[in-house]
Amino acid sequence: MVTCHPVPCIFCSRLADGNIVAENGLAVAFEDAFPLNPGHCLVVPRRDEPDFLALAPEEQAAVWALVEQVRRYIDAGWRPRRPPTLSSRSV
Ligand SMILES: [Zn+2]
């Protein structure tokens, strides 16, 4: 369940539609309604808070915990090309 104001915001309305990509107790991931790229997903806290830094540490951790699951979801469905990145070994 997602908490929201008396008039649901766009994220809470979107979550009520279902089609969840990944979730845990404090956060949820779903595909963007207007994707910039195939598989574009949003990860949001279950509590309606627009400022990520205003979330409790455990809520921030819950959001980050879903990022890897979303990456696997995108990799499995779309196999996106990624630009080369620096690793700690190449610096
Ligand atoms: Zn909301």
Q: Secondary-structure map with pairings?
A:
Elements: H1 10-16, E1 20-23, E2 27-31, E3 41-45, H2 57-78
Antiparallel strand pairs: 1-2, 2-3
Total domains, how many?
1
Mean pLDDT: 85
Count of individual beta strands:
3
CATH topology: HIT family, subunit A
CATH superfamily: HIT-like
N-to-C terminal Cα separation, in Å?
44 Å
Residue share in helix? 25-40%
Secondary-structure-derived class:
alpha+beta
- Bound heterogens, unique: zinc ion
Oligomer: single chain
**Would you identify the CATH architecture?**
2-Layer Sandwich
Taking the sheet with the most strands, its summary is: 3 strands, antiparallel
Strand order of the largest sheet: 1-2-3
| Relative strand content | 15-25%
The coarse overall form would be globular
Task: Compute the number of helices.
Answer: 2
Structure explained in plain terms:
The chain is of the alpha+beta class and 91 residues long. The chain has one domain: HIT family, subunit A. 32% of the residues lie in helices and 15% in strands. It is built from two helices and three strands. A three-stranded antiparallel beta sheet has the order 1-2-3, covered by helices on one side. Strand 1 and strand 2 form a beta hairpin. It starts with 9 loop residues before the first helix and ends in a 13-residue tail after the last helix. The structure holds zinc ion. Residues 4, 8-9, 11-12, 48 line the site of zinc ion.
